[in-house]
């Protein structure tokens, strides 16, 4: 009986000790780059001891092997927040001590060529390139080897997206975060974004708000009669719409002048 009581007392004491232990606090995140830099920054130079300390602070992770890369894909229509999600992910990775780099197509010069910019004005420095295969040469082999995370915005404009992601993740062990349109204004495959889905560790499909009824928007409606697939533009050329207003919009575009599209679609919304 005494041994049973002693055992219960011991268990009670250990339980109290576990419950009263304070929870560990998360370290504050500090980004290793400044948004006003004219060129991309990959963080301050760190000594070998500093690098080891950073690795220890991330939970004692071992050095990244040559085959431990990842690919994460973010897709959706225009104005769905793809670039915002990309920057948030890159900032999160940078906050853990990883070195990051951003790339976008030099075809997209709406907000300048030295930054990836969201529609609400948030921006980060980037490399604007005609093709992804030139990134390592532009950066230099030594600097490329130090990059842990590569973010790619407007990925639909890169024809070599598949090969680059394969090499960066499988061969070089990089974490690659890709953001782009999965479909064009005709709801057809756009570029090579869908080709990397089988390679991806994760795929996130974002939606916007239909500008005409407020429902979830899965598609991008082009407001003009321009038929080429690659047409750079913002709210003056495109709008996110739900399925019904996408179908209605295609009929209106074929029947009326572009300046009347929104008015006619709003009339059709009232009739729904």
From TrEMBL:
GO terms for molecular function: ATP binding; identical protein binding; metal ion binding; thymidine kinase activity. Keywords: ATP-binding, DNA synthesis, Kinase, Metal-binding, Nucleotide-binding, Transferase, Zinc. InterPro entries: P-loop_NTPase, Thymidine_kinase, Thymidine_kinase_CS. Its EC number is 2.7.1.21. This is Thymidine kinase. The lineage of its organism: Eukaryota, Viridiplantae, Streptophyta, Embryophyta, Tracheophyta. GO terms for biological process: DNA biosynthetic process; double-strand break repair; response to UV-C; thymidine metabolic process. Belongs to the thymidine kinase family. Pfam families: TK. SUPFAM superfamilies: Glucocorticoid receptor-like (DNA-binding domain) (SSF57716), P-loop containing nucleoside triphosphate hydrolases (SSF52540). It comes from Leersia perrieri. PROSITE patterns: TK_CELLULAR_TYPE. It comes from the Eukaryota. It catalyses: thymidine + ATP = dTMP + ADP + H(+).
